Amino acid sequence: MKNELRVLRAQRNWSQADLAERLGISRQSVNAIETGKYDPSLPLAFKLARVFDTTIEAIFSDQP
Amino acid sequence: MPQKKLAPAIRRYILRFFTAMTLYVIFLVGAVWAFPRYHPTGLLAYLLAILPALPIMAVIGVVALYVTEEQDEFQRALLVRALLWGIGLTLAATTAWGFLEVFSLAPHLDLYLVFPLFCVLAGAANGIVRLNYK
User: Fold this and answer.
1) B66 half-sphere exposure, CB direction, 13 A CA radius
2) What is the mean pLDDT of residues B80-93?
3) Do B75 and A25 touch (CB under 8 A)?
C-alpha cells in the first residue's frame, strides 16, 4: 500500500526511530510500513494518523 | 551506538525462557542421576522420566506468551511466520526420517530430539524471514 510516511516524517524532521518511539514499535517495523512491505492493522493505522494529527486516508492510499 | 532498551515483552520472555531452561538442566541431571541409583518403578518411574519434558513444555508456553504479549504487531507477524516455517520443516523432516527408518535407511531418531530440531529450524527461519526487512 502506498503511503506518505516519509513526507510526513520529513515535515516534522523525525527519523524512523523518532516515529517508532512515538508509536511504541521498533524502527524496523516503521521501515517495513514506510516501504510498503507491511500493511499495518487498523489500530496501528489510527495511531499513526493520530501521531501525525491527520486521517488514515491522508497517509495511506490503495491506489497504485 | 546507543544501548537499545529491550521491550518489556522481550525482557519477560528472556527471564521466563532462562528459568525454564535452568529447570530443564536440573530435572534432566536429576532424572539421569536418580534412575540408575534408585531404579524407580511404577508411577514414580513415569513421573521421574517425564520430569525433564515439563520445562520444555513450559518453553512452548513461554513462546506462546511472548507472541500474545509482544506489542509490536510487525515483529509478532515475523515471529509467527518463523514459527510456522519451523513447525512445517520439523514435521516434514521428521516424517521423512520416519519413513527412512521404516525401510532401515536411517538410524533411529529419539523423539526428544524433535524439539531441539524445531528450535534450530525456527531459529534459522527467524533469520531468513527478517532478511527482507533490514
Assistant:
1) 23
2) 98
3) yes
